[in-house]
Design brief:
Blueprint lengths: L1 E6 L4 H12 L3 E7 L8 H4 L9 E2 L2 H8 L3 E4 L3 H13 L3 E4 L6 H14 L3 E3 L5 H14 L4 E8 L9 H13 L20 E3 L2 E7 L5 E9 L2 E9 L6 H10 L6 E2 L7
Parallel strand pairs: 1-2, 1-4, 2-3, 4-5, 5-6, 6-12, 7-9
Antiparallel strand pairs: 7-10, 8-9, 10-11
This protein binds NADP nicotinamide-adenine-dinucleotide phosphate (NAP).
NADP nicotinamide-adenine-dinucleotide phosphate binds next to α1.
Length: 263
């Protein structure tokens, strides 16, 4: 049995992860941490009976007293970074879906994992369909140098552009055999009308109530276009990927920054 502590347990993703962990027979949930709902039993939070696990606001205590094998983190960027750092220091492997960590924060975690010989998985998107979308984008990028990304999320999402869109841009940039030669002469009548620009790839972020997590990667060529689209209709779409990472993370001795490296 793999012992799990969840940070961000009171949040939307945290609750889905609690359900997923309690429903899997190879994991035991031993602790839950959040700044909200402190002292509440995690069972009723997700419509289950009481589980005897109360939300704590102190990760250090949970790491020391509950002796977890892994930490699953869905919080905010700076908190997620500190949680993962702390976990690795305690010899606990983090699996984090928190988006918005800086390159330097990820690099610090990578170095700490290498020093401690501990596995970690940081994945901007745990939906398996999204990971496959990124792979397909990598194939298309070898033949279509002109591409733009539209990512669409619920209006509560804090960071923009999404971690998935940035990860997709990285995959495309690495796969491109030639760069776009088409001229973008458009004059922006409103600032950022053409979206953000990551090394020549335009990324457009849409935030609206009713959406969950969606992305289109649109490749254009003379007389044709190719659109690769993925939709997450509910947060449960992320759970199989979280469990897959949680099952593999302890066999790693380094940090991996995408689910792509595990499937
Ligand atoms: P959320 O509902 O706001 O949940 C985050 C929870 O963490 C909140 O309860 C938040 O409290 C809490 N928190 C804040 N500071 C904390 C601390 N110091 N210790 C412990 N908990 C703390 O957000 P969400 O929708 O679940 O998303 C969480 C993260 O996961 C975001 O970065 C999101 O982009 C990411 N995400 C990733 C994937 C993926 O597949 N990788 C999928 C969905 C979401 P407050 O509300 O008081 O700040």
């Amino acid at each position: 049995m793999t012992r799990v502590v969840i940070t961000g347990a009171y949040g939307r993703m945290g609750r889905e992860v609690i359900k997923g962990i309690l429903s899997a027979d190879d994991f035991t949930l031993v602790g839950a941490v959040d700044v909200n709902g402190v002292g509440e039993d995690i069972g009723p939070l997700i419509g289950f009976k009481e589980q005897g696990i109360l939300i704590s606001d102190n990760l250090d205590t949970e790491l020391q007293n509950k002796k977890p094998d892994i930490l699953i983190d869905f919080t905010t960027a700076d908190v997620g970074f500190l949680n993962c750092f702390n976990a690795i220091l305690h010899g606990v492997s983090p699996v984090s879906g928190t988006t918005g960590m800086s390159d330097s924060q990820i690099e610090q975690l990578r170095m700490l994992c290498a020093e401690k010989q501990i596995g970690a998985v940081l994945a901007p998107n745990f939906a398996l369909g999204a990971v496959i979308m990124m792979r397909l984008a990598g194939i298309a990028a070898q033949y279509f140098p002109d591409v733009e990304i539209i990512e669409l999320h619920h209006d509560q999402k804090i960071d923009a552009p999404s971690g998935t869109s940035l990860g997709t841009a990285d995959v495309i940039l690495a796969a491109q055999s030639k760069k776009s030669t088409s001229q973008d002469n458009s004059i922006e009548k409103l600032k950022c009308a053409r979206g953000a620009n990551k090394n020549g790839i335009h990324i457009h972020s849409v935030r609206l109530p009713g959406l969950i997590a969606h992305q289109e990667v649109i490749f254009g060529g003379p007389g044709q276009s190719l659109t690769i689209r993925h939709d997450s209709y509910g947060r449960e779409s992320f759970i199989p990927g979280v469990l897959l990472a949680a099952r593999k993370v302890r066999s790693l001795k380094c940090l991996v920054n995408s689910l792509n490296e595990l499937i």
